[in-house]
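=== RUN LOG ===
request id: a7f3
mode: sequence -> structure
chains: 1
length: 958
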Amino acid sequence: MSFGRLQAALTAATSEVTLAAANINFDFTLVKIEAPQEYTQLGSLLPTAKKSEAESGSTHVTARRLGTLFDGVCPHTPNLIKAYGTRVSEISTIANDQISSHYKDSIFGAHSGVDGTTIWAAATSSNASLHVHLLACMLARIFEASEAVSIWVELEKERRLDIAGRFDRGENVQFSLASAAAQNPISKQQLADWDSSARAWLRTADEVKRNESRQLHTLLKDLNLAVNEQTKVYPSVIEAWKNALNMMEDLVCGRPQAVQDGSVILGLSAWHLYPPLVVFGGQNFRVNMDDRLVKPGGELSIGLSSSIKTKDTLVYWCLSLAHLRHYGKPVRTEGRIQEDPTRCSFQEFMYGVIGAITNRWQIPSQDTLSTMKFFALVHMSFDEANAVAGRYEWVALLGRTAKDYLGASEVDAAGAERIFQLGRRRSELFIGPIQFEAGHNRKQDGGYITGDPRYLGLLDANVLTGVTGLEVESLIELLRHKLQRDPTIRCADYLIQYKSGVSRKRKAKHSGGRHSDSADAEMEDDDDLSNHNQSCYAYATVSPTWDHRFRFITNENTGDTDEKLSRMQHRWVNEGSHAIPLTERIHTLNANHLRRNGFDLMLTDMSSTAQCKYSWVFGDMETAAVFVREGSKPIVQSSFHVDDFVHCHKKGLLSHTKIMSHVMKHGFPSSVANMLGALSTVDGIYEKLSGATVSLKCFEKPLLESKWYNWSSLHRGATRRKLALAIVSYFDSGSCDLDPEDLDQVIAVSTGDSIYVPAQLVCDPLKRHQPHVLKRILGNIGKPGVVLLNPPQGPMMRDLEFTSVSMPKFDGTKQDCFGATSLHLSFTGLHMPMYDTNVKVGRDSQVSILESVMSVRDRGNWVADINILDALSTDFDFKPVLNRTCRHEQTQASFAGVYSIESWDDILDHPVDKFVVRTHGNWAARLAAYSVLAQAMKEKGSLYGETKRPRSPQTMPI
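=== RESULT ===
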């Protein structure tokens, strides 16, 4: 049946309804009901702009139309509706308590706060509209924005066709239902706004219910369920929606349920309701989630598969989307709820970065804790060595991340481990493919370190022995610790040769793992060690042991049995050698029975032909080296284990200065070093963004290929506002890669549940924040995707009323004459999409520019439109009138010739002499006055004028 016939039939039904009601252009904003009591707290907390939008704007129209269109589809769920209302009010209260009241006076005040627009619009429309909101949360939870909007377009179309078909078959169709079906389709933009608000709500609610969400994902880590088996959008969504509503209604009523498919898991995840879970699988257990909104008995039983999972997905939903692209065949799309979190703080994001680095190094997961200790200790060495901040900020970044990981609580540790493992799996995508990098055969004093490049090269045998302290005992303990930890060798077969009584300032000249050519020149074959300054050489056992052949090189008679000697550590030294721990047995070295043959040591018995050969294994022949007895099993890996580094660092055996010097010279290969340098810049931005989160999708593409990185690499040392805004757009969305040059005029970015603004826009102008410093405000401007707020050119000011200009002389008293001044943000209606990666594949752009007007009002009356950032870049003189540290009395004579500005007309027609704008204790009015003054001066060409204003109350008692 055509919609024309349905419309004609409705228009003819004048005997049943009034002509106004029969009009197909019926205004759904005329119908507004009182919200259920459980939702009133949410309504009281909504920002002004969002509450107005929810009650009388297009979102209310969308809620009414969708609620009416899908009326009768869903089951009656009064208890679920009540429980959900209680939960959203609880979440919004907690979230709003975390918002600084400071921002409520700012230009973004009407947009700051929890985005519960769709919830309040639905609550003031109908229960059916609330059901539609719950579906919006389900779709936003599992599908990307463009996919969810495509689903809404198809749902609305199919529902209208279904109603028209029923009417055509002569079925009884309610007038309101037929009227909703006969109207023009809901626009795609309205559906995108509807989805965007639900998506923003989920982000805020997830953060408030963070522990519960992580616990749920941890408990269900072995789950792998489809929402249902249908791939056609309309039947699949309707089935999943109804099933989730039915089961959640039973659960909150205290009736136990068993999971049959993934729809109920999707529902409880999207609606933030947490019933007790009874899990059956390899190990059965029950977990009480302590949710007071679920009555006793409302347990959800879940059977986990014992088979190995093939993907890291808890719940997945496969649909064929006909409206995802503007042109082409339907696209098969799979939405997924992952085991891993989708968002985290930037601090937690760095766990994944370290995970990517460890995978790059091919470090096994069992060494994770030791690796974190390694980074924390390297950072400690830089601190102890008083490293200069700047170029090596990445050391501090990795060190802080490692300390946070090691100190995480049990719940946070589980989430941290998931992010760490995600980084490991995405290593090649994030860092780029492993390839040879010129210069990473790191040069050291004429030779090359070609050993183990992992752990910044510090585990290379030659490097780690080179960064021990000046005391030779530190080096001996390091070598002993390494060998004693190796279960594959017999320590009794090893000897340590070291030099004693000499300075360790001389460095090893190793190449290829043994020694340099200069070292070769010093070691000729078959040399008697007595001819080679033997007083410098000494020997030590690796562990308590004794071999009868040790008597060959022992001058004195030990007087003890071999059994007793085998329980001691031994040293062979020359008389007058360095101090040795009293716990070791000391012998005088008989150098005549020691000969060197190349890299071998020969222990000989002069009274017989017996001899024992020890071969060089690793180490520096000029400081300390390890030898193994012929015929014994040699050590497989000469480089140290990370636990050796941790052990020796904690015992104070390593030199902080030497560690710092090595890392500064060698460190990471260029790709990783550049990545960490870029992340240090990002960290500097996010450390001031309280409550901000980043998308873990950032791990799915190379960081160094981003436009913001390429721009920053060409403008080194310049962290400007446009770069900071490009960075937060990239990390918040996980997909929005903008060129900073395109953001030169952007004043703020709205995305998800966040507005990122330069601190200059929301702070006292006298604080003089750096242009790149951003603040994060909880809220948004109600548009989907990443929205760039751009001011219009040539902002206007009201005409001057000359009769209102007064300008008395300043009397030096504290006064706020601008208490009725307010700042406002409005939009001209110019909203343009930007070309992004979605457009390349025929989808709607997720990035747009919205022309935004910043205005000053006085008692509600318009004064001027302003561009605050332009004003703050204007070079005119302004100073505080008084200084708090000034203790002498200031009389009226002190301000002779200074005028007092007490109204907006005084500002618009400001004097050319010195003047004071009286805004004591009112930072917002001070910012407004500053901006209008700068604009007025620019128009008059009086930038040379000097203005003076009192400081903010924190710094100036005026």
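=== NOTES ===
DSSP finds 32 helices and 31 strands in the chain.
Residues 836 and 845 are 6 Å apart (CA to CA).
=== END ===
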